[in-house]
Amino acid sequence: MIYTASNKNLRSNKYRSALICGFSGNEYCYPDLFASPLKMIPNQDNYPEFITLYYKEILSKLDPEKIYQELDNSVLVGANNDYCHRFIIAEWFKLFLDVNVPDVIIDDDYFKIIMGPGNIREHLERAIKETIDLKGYRSIRAYQLSENAKLVAELSFGDEEVLEYANALKQQASSVERAYNIRAKNYSYRS
Hints:
alpha/beta; 3-stranded mixed sheet; globular
């Protein structure tokens, strides 16, 4: 599992940390996720614009599954800012991989999940859909599963077990898409 935390909220050495906002001493840094190339400091007024820019310029060039595997069992440490890009990364993992990445306060004897800013999902989903052809899917996760199924099938070389796995991924994509459409339909009734 991955967590996120601001620099001030990670007060324990019990967890592997990965800095995503610049260099500091001998700590492990993950520069692929740095926001510094954007030359923009996120705040309440520009956060929707920042979300779009961060996705298009940084995250869209990365493979969420690969990044998640590399950072699994880590705390992604970002700035002491309520509008840090760590919240965008967490939502990116949720949309593509359907995994929760909670923001936390941690010290040696204390662990608490805290809430980040709202509306990230809406803005990030819009940025993703402007950037990627989802090939008829409405759900980003369903699209990701479908693409994985195609890749697995291409690399199967006729192996029946591998083709069965590819078909299972396709079925999972269909199931995720149906659930997404039901949620969207229920949400539109409430609005």
